[in-house]
Amino acid sequence: MINTERLCFGCMNDNGGEKICPVCGYDSASKNPEDTLPVKFTVNNRYLVGKVISANGESITYIGWDNIESSVVEIKEYFPKGFARRNPDKTVSMVKGGEYTFNEGLMEFAEINENIIGSELPSLIPVMSVFEENGTVYAISAHITGITLERFLEKNGGSLKWEQARALFLPLIDTIKGMNDLNIIHRGISAENIIVSRDGKLRIANYSIKKLRYDDSELESQLYPGYSPVELYGFENMHDGYYTDVYGLCAVLFRVLIGIAPPEALVRLRDDSMTVPAKFAEELPRHVLAALANGLQVLPENRTRNIEQLKNELVYAEISENSPAHSAHTQNEPAENLKNGKKSSSAKYAVISAACTAMVFLVLAAVLIFTVFKEDVFPDKTESSSSEETSVNPPKVESIGTIDSGAEVTAKQYSVPEFRGKYYADICENDEYEMFDLVVTDKAYSDDFPKGTICSQSVAAKSEVVRDTKIELVISLGPQQIKMPNLIGMEKDAAIVELLKQGFMYEFINSDTEKEYVKYDEDSKPGVVVDQYPEYGTMVSTDIAVEFFINSYTGDEDSESSLNESSEESTNISSTQQQE
Q1: Which of these, 53, 5, 12, 13, lies nearest to 33 by C-alpha position?
Q2: Do 31-143 and 481-557 share a fold?
Q3: Which pLDDT tens digit goes with each residue over 540-578?
Q4: Is the pTM above the cut of 0.70?
Q5: Are 423 and 451 in contact (CB under 8 A)?
C-alpha cells in the first residue's frame, strides 16, 4: 500500500513527499476554497479529499484517493450553491427556507448516480459508490485521464470526417439512449462535457440534477450556448424531453463535422441563419445532413423525437418521409409567452423561426442540388454548364477557422521537443505538448540534470511522430552522491523527514524502536537520535540503507535512584533506632 504521506493531493501521484509536486506542480501548502472540504479530509472512512477540480450550482468535485483500492478517484459532493452551508465541522446544513429545493435535488442527485452504478453503458464514466454523510450525498467515480472533445478538435484541425466521427460516436449514442431509457436526460450535452480519454474512446460526463440546466431555475444554472436547446431557456409550456438530448448531440456532431458550434438557440429563435458551407455539404453523406437538420430544429415539436430515431437516421439512413429535411415548408406551432416577460415575444419569434427554418432548408436544398445531387438533377449537362451552376455562391458561415476537412487525424506529424532539463510539472501544464502521450516510467540519478527535471526521453528531440505517440520520460533524482545529513539530536519523525528530503528511500530507513535500533545515553535527551550510520558528512548514495538509533533513556533513572537512596536511609535509621 502506498504511503499517503508521499501523495500529491493535486494529482494523487507518489511525489516522494516533495513540497512542490514534480508531476503536476501542485504546492502541498495550497488550500481548497472556502466552503469546500479541506485537503486530506476523509469521507466514508475510506476516501481522502484532494484539491477541488470543479464546482457549479449543484455540486463540488474533488480529486481523491481510495485508501482501500489504492487508486485515484473523483469525489462529487452534493452542495447546491445558495441552499447549502458548510459548518465548522465540515458537515453540510440547509439554508433556512431552501429545505425543499435542497432535499429535492439531493434525492435526484443520489438517484442519477445510483442508476449509473447499476448500468453497463460503454461511454459512461463509472460511478463506484454513492453514500450519505455529513448531511449530504457523495458520489465516487473513476478518474478518467483525457481532454475535452472541444480541446481535442482544436488540436486536430478543427473538425473530423464523418467516417472518423461515426466510429467514435456510436457507443456514445447508445449510452445516451440507455440513460434516456432510465428516464434520465443529460440536458448539458456539449463538446465540454464529452471527454476523449487516453484509450481514444468518448465518455459522457457531468450528469446533473435537472434544475442545474434550466435558465429560470432557483439554482445557479449551467447552460452551454450553441448546445443547449431553446426549451431550457425558461419558456412557459415549452418542456424538455428526450429530444433535448437529441439537440445537444446533434449540436456536438455539427461542431465535429462542420468545425463550429451552431448559433445559440435564442439567436436562432429570432433569426435562424445557420447554414452548412458547400465544402462540407459536398463531403458529408446526404442522410447525415438530413439527420442533423431534423435534430437541430429550433422548436422541440419539430425535432427528432428521441435518440433511437436519430441513430436510425444517422447510421441507417432511415429518414422519415415527413421529416423537415424532405420539406422546405414546415408547419411550426407558435410558442407560448415567456416567463416574467423577459422573453415576451415568443409567439412572434416562433413564426419568424418557422419562416427562417424554411429558408434554411431551401438554402440547404440549393446547396445540395448544386453539389451532392448535381449528377442526379442535371445528368445531361455539359462540363461547362455544370461549372456555371456550381459557381453559384452558397451562403457561408462567418468564420469556421482553419480547417483541413480532408486531413486524417493520425496523418499529421509533430516534431518532438527537447524535454530533457525541463520540470515535468511545466510539461504537464503546457498545452503545446498535449499531442504526445507523456509517461513517467522511472527515476534515475544524474549529475547533469537537477533533481525533478527530465533526464531522459525515449523518443529523441526533433523526431517526427504521429499524435498520441508514447514518449517515456525519466525524472532525475539529482547527483547520486550526497553529503550525509546530521541526524543527532533529532526526534525520530524529524529524522525520517530530513532523510526523505535528501532523497533517501523510505523503505531503506531503519529506525524501528521496538527492535535493535535503540541505544542508552544519559547525556542526551530521551527519545532523540544518539547515533547514525553512515556518519554525518560522509558522501553516500541515496539508495543505501540508513540506520539511526533512538535514545532509550527515559529520564526517570535519577528520580528512581533518589527514591531508592531515600528508602535505604529510612531503613538504616529504623535499624539504628531499634538497636538503641
Answers
A1: 53
A2: no
A3: 877 788 989 999 888 765 544 444 444 444 444 444 444
A4: no
A5: no
